[in-house]
Every structure is written in structure tokens, then in C-alpha cells.
UniProtKB/TrEMBL annotation:
Residues 2-79 form the Gfo/Idh/MocA-like oxidoreductase N-terminal domain. Signal peptide: none annotated. This is Gfo/Idh/MocA-like oxidoreductase N-terminal domain-containing protein. InterPro entries: Gfo/Idh/MocA-like_OxRdtase_N (IPR000683), NAD(P)-bd_dom_sf (IPR036291). One of its GO terms (molecular function) is nucleotide binding.
Amino acid sequence: MINLGIIGTGMISRNFVATAEKTNEFKLTAVYSRTEERAKEFGEPFGAQNFFTDLNKFFESEVFSTIYIASPNDLHFQQKTSNFKS
């Protein structure tokens, strides 16, 4: 089972997670969003239990082994390079 962390909680993210979980090889374990309420609203239906509003804490959490970045395109570089700093 691959533990999945996700950045971004829009419709594309929802479709991605739903499809990934249908393979029975992925489990959503962590969600990053700008608000905790939105992170929980997105992740709880998929069984996620770890919600973050701090990107550094998200990357430091070690509750996932792969990440899907589904935020607006202009944020991808900044969010990915945060991982290198953590």
C-alpha cells in the first residue's frame, strides 16, 4: 500500500484520489490545504487522518511515501522546493 499525501483540494484532486484508491494500491493519509476545515472536508471522506496548513509540517510528517501536487500551477515550484528545505 502506498501512502499518499496531497497538496490541493480541488475537483482534480478529488478525482485523482478516488481513482487512485480504486486500484487498492493507494491510501490517502495526509492533506495540505490553506485551511484545516478544507483539508478535513476533502480528506475525511477518503479516510485521511492527517491534515496540515503548514507546508513544512506536512513534509516533515512522514505519514506518506508519495505526494500529488494539485495546487495551482504557479505554486508547484515553491511547494516542491519546500520539501528540500524540510
